[in-house]
## 1
Amino acid sequence: MPKAQETVLEINLKALKHNFEYLKSRLQPNTKFLAVVKAFAYGSDACEIANYLQSLNADYFAVAYINEGIALRHAGVTKPILVLHPQSVNFKQLIEHCLEPSIYNSKILKEFINSASAEKQTNYPIHIKFNTGLNRLGFSGHDVDSIANELKATETVKVTSVFSHLAASEDLEEKRFSLNQIETFNNIAENFTKQIGYKPMRHMCNTSGILNYPEAHFDMVRCGIGLYGFGNSEKENQHLKPISTLKTVISQIHTIKQGESVGYNRAFKSDALLKTATLPIGHADGIGRQYGNGNGFVTINGEKAPIVGNVCMDMVMVNVTNIDCKEGDEVIIFGENPTAENLAASVQTISYELLTSVSQRVKRIFID
Ligand SMILES: *Cc1c(COP(=O)(O)O)cnc(C)c1O
């Protein structure tokens, strides 16, 4: 692997293939695999990742918003794309790009039927989402009759799937809650199928659901973070490989005398002679200010270098007093060690947030 000469996010497609194959090995052979590639495929690159997974025969994709789905179509993704949280203002574009909306309340159902019939569609694929305990998006089980009536009155749309989302699939202390969600979903899906007179696919599991609740795999699973290398537990992390490594370089080394300060607002004041390194990565690249003042760290030649003072927009300074290093040396922010999960934990957040924060200004490099 070439040494970084600027800030880059290196994405290892071999690791992605490994994760995909591992996760598939946890499914029954006929369970479909939907790859969640919202938020630039968790900060990596949705178009590259989706095209690669399409070549590995992923069955379905999901994004959060319509513009994310349009970008995938422009990049050559031809498999079905579920839009998890569409906004009705963009329905015309959704239809033009053959994206499939998640329908989560009667307002959006009516609006979608209106838009699709204005575009002269018949049997347009939609996905009905039920709330079973997350209390975020979704119809309630009591809405089944009214949805079914709405659907019987039109030929414009056809339900491809019914689905729900687990609230605490990674937390085994909440197992009873999750099992209750699964049972609730089963009952709703059963009733819904009876009411509409045909059988849509069912799906419920995200990554931790795949790993912890095989009884809830149904016809398809929706996998995000696992593809990117995290299983939300130490045990599962062992089977997965983080696909991205965020790297940078040392721009400059400073000697700081006792009593001098480093960075904006003089947030750090030195009580000894020390050495700092300035790096070309800041909060505009995804290293938030919470990582400053000794909370977060980077890794240089295998040693931990804590962030000194405030994180700037385009730079951070790190303490390298006891590290053998020079200007131009490579710096690891996260990758195999520490992982994004490890670094995120230093500021009480999760891999998902750190990964999706890496801004579009950071160059993505793909290695196979
Ligand atoms: C983001 C998301 C997923 C993927 O979750 P992971 O924990 O990353 O696997 C699945 N389903 C829905 C509805 C989501 O919003």
## 2
Amino acid sequence: MKIAIRTPLIHSLPLSHHGGCNVWLKMESSQPTGSFKLRSAAKICRYYAERGATAFISSSGGNAGIAVAHSGRKLGLPITVVVPESTPARAKQLIEQEGARLIVHGKVWSEANDYARSLATDEVIYLHPFDHPLLWEGISTIVDEVISDGLKPDAVILSVGGGSMLSGIAQGLEKHQSDHIPVYAVETPGTASFNASLNAGKLVRLDKVSGIATTLAASQVCENAFNVASRLDVRSVLVSDHEALNACRRFLDDHRVLTEPACGVSLSLLYDRKISFNPADNVLVIVCGGASVTLKGIAG
Ligand SMILES: *Cc1c(COP(=O)(O)O)cnc(C)c1O
């Protein structure tokens, strides 16, 4: 039984036009839960389920929590998701819709996360939202699919929150001997924990995070994402909240797909031509998606 699905890889005429290159979209927005997080969640839940896990606990009020809830439902195992008081009603609704038990605990994510971790046992497995090799392995299948569809990208554009996407894509590129190509890692100024770490030459924790791209709001990226930057040609780019929102709106018109601003940051690189690509370049954009978005939420 498949949990995460093989997503479409489509050539985008409008984005190719705006970006001045050949743009290919990997439509992770088409995953059943609306984001690539289903690849990572399904991978880790299946792994532990095969080794006797009887339940799972997650601490994400975002796409990771929704993906764990979905995976648990598919595997027939109960899921608990602990979220902080700040979690929007929409996110809670999506988690409960998947049949998970929702616990609201703590003011911020770290408090909810500590509580979730404290509930774990040998059979009740705690799942970190972005920092685990099995999560990255699940995400690396994006590259497997792109290569098997016959595309050898000249560059990749992706969004960075806690760094599981960057870690997984890097793993996939290394597996397919494509780790020489540039990887554009995009954040907003208010969530720029990866950018801050690159600039400092060491892992940095932001004092506060802010802005519209709440899905990218990890105050510190995982250590592996930072290490990837020393092996691959990773280039950090920042995109304003305004540009991210605008890119979501343009993408909705061009491709009829609604995405979170966390995804809009990557699309903005092309819509706003922030990078000068060679016209012959095949540029792969990971359309990471996101479920906590409504038409009203991106209306201007
Ligand atoms: C999780 C997520 C991100 C950020 O990915 P990380 O692996 O945390 O860096 C970006 N966009 C969407 C839609 C996400 O769900």
